[in-house]
Structure formats: structure tokens, C-alpha cells
Design goal:
mainly beta; 2 strands; single chain
Amino acid sequence: MEIAQRVVSYTADRLEMISQLFGDDSHGGMRPGVLLFPEAFGLGDQ
């Protein structure tokens, strides 16, 4: 299995955001995923 990495950019509240997407391109169709959101003030209870 080889993990592919892509840079994804988008705009939110007039700010350009840059993220990274990782996945195994050898499998097609829908797959489970994990979405992480950073907090503005660092690590919190969530």
C-alpha cells in the first residue's frame, strides 16, 4: 500500500486555507476518513 499526498487549498472567511489530503489511491469507491480541525487557541478539551 502506498499513501498518496495532495495539497488542498480553499477559502474560508476570506482567508486562504491550505490542507493536506492523504489516502490510498489503489482502492476505488467510498472509504471511511478522519477530518481534523485545529482550534484557534491551541489544544483544548475537544
